[in-house]
Amino acid sequence: MFDPACPSNAMPIKIGDKWSAAIIRCLEDGPRRFSEFQIPLRGITTKVLTGSLRSLERDGLIERTVYPEVPLRVEYTLTPLGRTLLEPLDAAAAWARQHMPALLAAREEYDRRTV
Fold first, then answer.
1. Are 41 and 49 in contact (CB under 8 A)?
2. What is the rounded CA–CA span in Å between residue 114 and residue 39?
3. 1 — pLDDT class (breaks 50, 70, 90)
4. CA 53, CA 51: separation in Å to the nearest integer?
5. Is the pTM higher than 0.90?
6. In order of start, what are the domains of the chain with their CATH numbers?
7. What is the CA radius of gyration of the chain?
């Protein structure tokens, strides 16, 4: 794991990456335009959204399609590879639902001891 050549360094969704999994979830039901991400992803900046979309596209998880219309229309969609992440995301969400009370209690106890 600490070897620079370890494949874990190339993981597309890193622990603590706030937006990649959310973007993938946003595309679960079909394509979206750039502006359509900003409602469900409240708080994401244009710069961060652009960077996250580019990174996910680079990893082959999403596809960007430009339509030669006026005005120009760009849509993002999950690739078949990107769709394979939906099951692990479901598992992570199930874990969070099951363990959230214990996690929040641990945080509260930690904060109580360290403040």
1. yes
2. 36
3. very low
4. 6
5. no
6. 7-84 (1.10.10.10)
7. 17
